[in-house]
């Protein structure tokens, strides 16, 4: 009897260990896959431009020949720069490492480097020479997610411009500074938008949190509407699991640490005090794309974390996290909300309420 008992106990222990190993391998594989997706997307953002992005051609002079002495094509590295000035399709960026600035045109050609004042002076000369008019009308600022760049939001540009908006794709060093510091960059860029009388935001993932941080710290009466796509409004469980990993720290920096649920940064961000909507990526099942996360999810952010009480409308689309800015349904819905205040064509809304109010 004792022998049988020992054998049974041994077998149960072996089965338990096997299940634990299997679960561990599944968790580890999911984490590695998530990091690989982030890195792949980052590289893709800095790849040579396609028809949706910047041209790779050298600009031409008035005579039609390439003007190679006046400008130079940038070589990527957008994760190290933050936008501080917008004028039409021109921008001035600050390098978080060297504390220098550069002036870029709409095709990513560099026209000046040095101090901020030097870049502003160069911009003024270009404005006068090209007779560029003052800015006016309504604008939408696009904010990318962590370890991404403004190029990841390119598919929003054409439908927004077709709807009559001036579009600014905001770059910020998401892996090098805190959420609050990124909000400071955003404020500098917004302060430069003279003549614009209405400003809305579309933020993917961390971009939504940067928007919320900006709205908490700064006040601009031109702010109109906000759309957040796959934003971990209640923190990211995966970040909490990985926050002690040296690889995670190196790749995602301070903002990656702040994404963890236990951190106070996200908990202390109030909901926007303007109209805002939530678009969440889901699989449409009880367990979502990621077995680690509770309930439905987009593989990185759970549906529960994306939903922020106070939203005037919300929409779930079948998509993984990194592809939300490329999802046609998400893009159409976001543009529709900025324009009409509803994510759906029929005008029906699904507001997000506190659990106690449901």
User: Biggest β-sheet: count, sense, barrel?
Assistant: 6 strands, parallel
> Could you name the CATH topology of the largest domain?
Rossmann fold
The amount of beta strand, in percent, is: 15-25%
Proportion of helical residues: 25-40%
Strand order of the largest sheet: 7-6-8-9-10-11
* Structural class based on helices, strands and sheet pairing: alpha/beta
What is the CATH C level class of the largest domain, in words? Alpha Beta
User: What name goes with the CATH superfamily of the largest domain?
Assistant: Alpha/Beta hydrolase fold, catalytic domain
The helix/strand order is HEEEEEHEHEHEHEHHHEHEH
How far apart are the first and last residues' alpha carbons, in Å? 57 Å
Number of domains: 2
**Average pLDDT reading:** 84
Low-confidence stretches: 1-19, 47-69
What integer value in Å does the Rg equal?
23 Å
How many helical elements?
10
- Corresponding CATH architecture of the largest domain: 3-Layer(aba) Sandwich
Shape estimate? globular
Number of strands: 11
